[in-house]
Amino acid sequence: DGPSIAIVGASGAVGQEFLSVLSDRSFPYRSIRMLASERSAGKHITFEDKDYVIEKLSEDSLKDIDIALFSAGGSISKKFGPIAVENGAIVVDNSSAFRMDDEIPLVIPEVNPEAMKHIKLKFGKGALIANPNCSTIICLMAATPLHRLAKVLRMVVSTYQAASGAGAAAMEELEQQTREVLEGKQPTCKIFKQQYAFNLFSHNAPVLSNGYNEEEMKLVKETRKIWNDMNVKVTATCIRVPVMRAHAESVNLQFEKPLDEDTARDILKNAPGVVVVDDRTSNHFPTPLDVSNKDDVAVGRIRRDASQDGNYGLDIFVCGDQIRKGAALNAIQIAEMLL
Ligand code: 2RA
């Protein structure tokens, strides 16, 4: 029989998606412990025809756990991740708490599985593996197969990020605001402090002294770590858009070696976890709605960067479900690699 699982943040959008993915992929768990803050403790969750009661997360609730899936924010991961590891669990952490720690692997299974090859359940030792940020995962699922062939020298990313990235409450507020605006009422602005419906704005993450926000710097730093290439030039502009649960990203790539668009399209058609949607005749390309609740990242608008000489540049457009491949699915694919 399989590992004992703990879900830390069981009541959140990603916590709920962990359950969907575990079930969809028939993950061979022996037992599941649902953990969350005091506010959610006591709530019931029915999963695979079994009733679970959410327990309040405490130091004791992380004993006798083989794999702990964390998605409850950075402070919870910082406090309880090491305790779970001390107790022998392998933690897959969806927060940003440990992503840039040199000792911690930052893993997209289709991209850099080798980064976690030294960690296996059977070794019986605790460890922590970091799940990359959703916009990083979605971007690199498409950019990496091309990078592996032609070596990306520079990547410019513009993201169009869904409400789900800010949690279930942001999704609810987007819906509420949309209704209010259509009814001519003043929109409720509690989560983002500004109107979100029929609007878009620079990502709500704090802005740093260099003028980039934290979301943009995650893309820059995580790409370099995952590609193990401290020289690749990355710049990003992250925007929050009124879309429910899938991110879209425009990506410009400059290569060391030439890569023509037909070759790029073929590479992406064969890339794991990627589907090409690139129909110029009918102007049919990836959309957030088309990828919502799906595992694969969709890529289209594959074209030679006409501002570059030869075939040293490509523009692509990528969409991926932020809660699924951007968080829960990626984490559970990591867990599957531990078995
Ligand atoms: C966002 N990437 O979309 C963040 C959530 N992890 O806001």
Task: Describe this structure as you would to a colleague.
The chain is of the alpha/beta class. 29% of the residues lie in helices and 24% in strands. It has helices at 13-24, 74-86, 134-150, 168-182, 214-226, 261-269, 288-291, 324-338, and strands at 4-8, 31-36, 44-47, 50-53, 55-56, 67-70, 90-93, 127-130, 152-161, 201-202, 233-240, 246-255, 274-276, 297-304, 313-321. The longest helix has 17 residues, at 134-150. The radius of gyration is 20 Å and the shape is globular. The N and C termini lie close together (11 Å). 46% of the residues are buried. Residues 133-135, 161, 165-166, 215 line the site of 3-amino-D-alanine.
Q: Quick summary of this structure?
A:
The protein is of the alpha/beta class and 339 residues long.
Keywords:
single chain; 339 residues; 8 helices; globular; binds 3-amino-D-alanine; threonine biosynthesis; aspartate-semialdehyde dehydrogenase
